[in-house]
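Good morning C.,

I know you're traveling, so I'll keep this short. The sequence:
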Amino acid sequence: METLDRTGTTPARPGLRELKKQRTRAALLRAAYTLFIERGYDSTTVDAIVEAVGVSQRTFFRYYSGKEHVALGVQEMAMEHFYEAVRARPPQEPPLEAMRRAVLEGWETVHETIECVVPVEQYLGMYRVIESTPVLLAAHLRRSAQTEERFARLIAEREGLDVDADPRPRVVVAVFGGVMRVTERLWSAGEDHSVESMRAITVEYLDQVGPALTGNWRDTRGGPACP
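The tokens, ready to paste straight into the viewer:
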């Protein structure tokens, strides 16, 4: 069965030339990820990446502006997938619930999308490279801030709000984004680097957002209650 796009029609299949471009772009990204994980980001050159694929530097720069661009390439794909998943959520869902469900219910489909380009293990392995490489971590956080602004505007649009007049869309997106960065960091620092571990940590922390923000911690933890 053919998949329909958002307009209800079957999307046109890419021609041979476009398929070749997609394969070259994916091959460069896979080679870069392999080298980044094996050698480290700083020790990997563009020359090494193009040599692994058998193309020229000119070809590399046709698809990527540099090492940082290719290093964060799949993360950008995942964020785009998440953005579309949030946009497709039922309009009656509260913003935080829409984002939570988009992440948890879209887990398998984002992996399918990523695996068309790189193995999921490589994608997850790049989180550890990013966390351990200051220049990449800085770039990742900078792009995350830009992504959060985009999501805030999407949430405001869903709720019929002016994002510059109502602080709630930016607040809820900032909270959600912060939780996701915590789970990435905990998973990266842990011993279990499986997909299942990443998902389990994500579920655990997302499920605590509501209680953490609205609950009485001292009562639930057995501490002294107010008189």
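Safe travels,
E.
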